[in-house]
Specification:
alpha/beta, Rossmann fold, 5-stranded parallel sheet, 12 helices, globular
């Protein structure tokens, strides 16, 4: 029986999500038994031509060439899954979306006229249809294995839709906002990290992007009215790893006075 072909593609990113795949160790061996890893430069030099049954895409679209490339990948893939904050929300590099990119290239490169880049860093879903988005910076390797297993077996992935606050409760963490007055994005952030930062008495930084239907306005009202957080600081909190995720983007814009 022919195994499904799996391809892993990289766009503008730090490779962290691809490393999460390699970090699966025993789980990756199980995946390797179920699929043919046809294209994955991070792991192997061998390349098997498409079309591919499942394509995992890491990274954001930042150049005209990226747009053409992701369209070719979409045409050659039965299922396309985006992994990580870059692919699902533009990544940390989406901070460029709020500034003049030409000023950056002029400051960094001796010959900026040779740099062919777009004004914005955008998620993959802005350019092609995406079958499933797996958030995180980087992704949770167990969620990744679950998503692969689900699509290989023709079922819906079982990934949490709730916020980091639920993970805090399950770990027995004391709420840092209530007990210490520490601003925390946990109430509006997708679960997946195991409430890592609150477990060490730090507020959540929103690495996993917005949860389903986040009430960002209510959270920022709590920050500004009761925790003394300024509007510029609210804006900066939402403009980080998932700066171009719709709900985070809109809330940041509401506090952008510049």
């Amino acid at each position: 029986m022919t195994k499904p072909k799996l391809a892993v593609w990289k766009f503008a990113s730090c490779d962290g999500c691809q490393l999460s795949i390699l970090d699966c160790e025993d789980e990756l061996l199980a995946v390797a038994d179920a699929v043919e890893i046809a294209y994955f430069p991070e792991a192997t030099r061998s390349v098997v031509s498409g079309p591919y049954d499942i394509s995992l895409v890491e990274g954001s679209v930042t150049t005209p060439h990226d747009i053409q490339r992701i369209q070719r990948i979409r045409k050659g893939s039965k299922v396309l899954i985006t992994i990580g904050a870059c692919a699902t929300a533009g990544g940390i590099q989406a901070l460029r979306n709020y500034k003049n990119v030409k000023e950056f290239t002029a400051a960094v490169y001796a010959r900026p006229e040779y740099i062919d880049t777009l004004d914005k860093s955008t998620p993959i879903s802005d350019h092609v249809f995406v079958d499933f988005e797996l958030r995180g910076c980087p992704v949770n390797k167990y969620q990744l294995v679950e998503v692969l297993s689900a699509f290989l077996n023709g079922r819906k992935p079982n990934t949490p839709a709730y916020s980091v606050c639920i993970e805090c409760k399950r770990r027995g963490n004391i709420c840092v906002m209530v007990s210490q007055g520490t601003p925390c994005l946990g109430p509006v952030t997708h679960a997946g990290c195991g409430a890592l930062c609150p477990a060490y008495n730090r507020g959540c930084y929103g690495c996993f992007g917005p949860m389903e239907t986040p009430n960002t306005a209510s959270l920022t009202n709590e920050w500004t009215q009761h925790l003394g957080v300024s509007s510029p600081d609210v804006m900066r909190a939402f403009r980080s790893y998932n700066a171009y995720a719709e709900s985070f983007r809109k809330e940041a814009q509401n506090h952008d006075n510049g």
